[in-house]
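Lab notebook page, bench 4
Experiment: in silico fold of construct C2
Operator: M.H.
Input chain length: 63 residues
Purpose: comparison with the prior construct
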Amino acid sequence: MKRLVISLLFFLVVSVAVGFLVSGPEFLDWGVAGGLFVLAVAGESFRFWLKRSRAKKRESSGI
């Protein structure tokens, strides 16, 4: 769980920085920053789901 929080915090900072850099005259491009963060959350959720499903397969070995 700690790794998930650190990873999402890192991607939040990176996405805000990229949104700030591509914003131009505006303060922050929320579409870019939000889109990048949504991709990061989706990737971390998929990784968490994959890890959990592998653990379940190992647990139900049918002995």
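Observations: The mean pLDDT is 86. The chain has one domain: 1-60.
Next step: discuss at group meeting.
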